[in-house]
Specification:
Elements (H helix, E strand, L loop, with lengths): L11 E8 L7 E8 L2 E5 L5 H22 L6 E3 L3 E9 L5 E3 L3 E5 H4 L2 H4 L9 H12 L15 H16 L14 H7 L4 H5 L7 E2 L2 E2 H16 L1 H12 L8 H16 L4 H7 L8
Parallel strand pairs: 3-5, 5-7
Antiparallel strand pairs: 1-2, 2-3, 4-5, 6-7, 8-9
Helix pairs in contact: 1-4, 4-5, 5-8, 8-9, 9-10
């Protein structure tokens, strides 16, 4: 595994500053800055703790940049300029983000799940997940069907969260909150790729599988079998195959062709035998 350990970020407390959340009025929040990060919060934290968190976020951000060969999107913050923004905000969602900003809801931050791991890297899966949203909109090879949003565009953030947990938090990839048991259920089913991804009609759930979680589990499994260097090459190969696919079959072939090029060998055993994708002969 590559070592993404970085020089520690020292966070600076700037006191109360105005911040406009996505779905609420502007309010005064305590603003912290460090490196390319800004953190707005409605409560007090020790400087050492915020510095530690920003260091974890930076590790995850650089890992994302390695995998995708793309810089992190930054937001123009009215107080600090171009930065990556994280906030604890008043909204009803667990967390929301747009590839530039991550807003964790106050209800989520105060929940027993979050509180139980306040001082662990595992807590910051929400931020790690949001890194992947940026990549979810970079590639158009799944634009054939309406399932795009719930497969690749949601599956890649799930993969990135799992990977950040593994590298930054040192948590085994097989123990992630999204994909636990999904591969096992898939192996026990008699479904194949076309059963899940063949239809153009949008569905949140198909045959008992959430499309995004299944795609995330697939990417995690691909990573576990072939490694991080392969995944970086795989993403690069996908980006060299632009253009929306005209069918689910064509989309499957494009992914397999990119994977084979990245690996330098035939991967039909993984795609066709293990995941029951349509056989491709490049």
């Amino acid at each position: 595994m590559l070592d993404f350990k970085l020089v520690r970020i020292e966070a600076t407390n700037h006191g109360l500053m105005p911040f406009k959340p996505f779905y609420a009025d502007t309010e005064l929040l305590t603003a912290w800055s460090g490196g390319r990060w800004v953190f707005y919060t409605d409560r007090d934290f020790p400087a050492a703790k915020v510095s530690e968190w920003m260091s974890w976020w930076e590790e995850g951000a650089r890992l994302y940049e390695f995998i995708t060969s793309q810089p992190q999107y930054l937001e123009f913050d009215s107080n600090f300029g171009e930065r990556k923004v994280v906030s604890i905000s008043p909204h009803e969602f667990w967390a929301i983000g747009n590839g530039q900003r991550v807003e964790i809801s106050r209800a989520a931050f105060d929940s027993s799940l979050m509180d139980s791991c306040l001082d662990t890297k595992d807590k910051h899966g929400i931020v790690f997940y949001e890194f992947g949203r940026q990549a979810g909109y970079l590639y158009d090879f799944y634009e054939y069907a309406e399932y795009t949003d719930e497969s690749w565009r949601r599956g890649f953030p799930i993969y990135m969260e799992s990977l950040c947990r593994a590298v930054v938090a040192r948590i085994d990839l097989s123990h992630t909150r999204w994909t636990n048991g999904v591969v096992e259920r898939w192996e026990k089913s008699d479904l194949d790729y076309m059963d899940i991804f063949g239809s153009k009609e949008f569905e949140w759930d198909r045959h008992g599988f959430d499309l995004g979680i299944l795609m995330g589990a697939f990417l995690v499994d691909l990573h576990e079998n072939l490694g991080i260097q392969f995944m970086a090459k795989f993403i690069q190969e996908l980006r060299q195959r632009p253009g929306a696919s005209t069918s689910a079959i064509e989309a499957a072939y494009k992914v397999q062709d990119a994977a084979a090029a990245a690996a330098g060998c035939d991967l039909s055993e993984f795609f066709v035998t293990r995941w029951r994708w349509p056989a491709y002969r490049g």
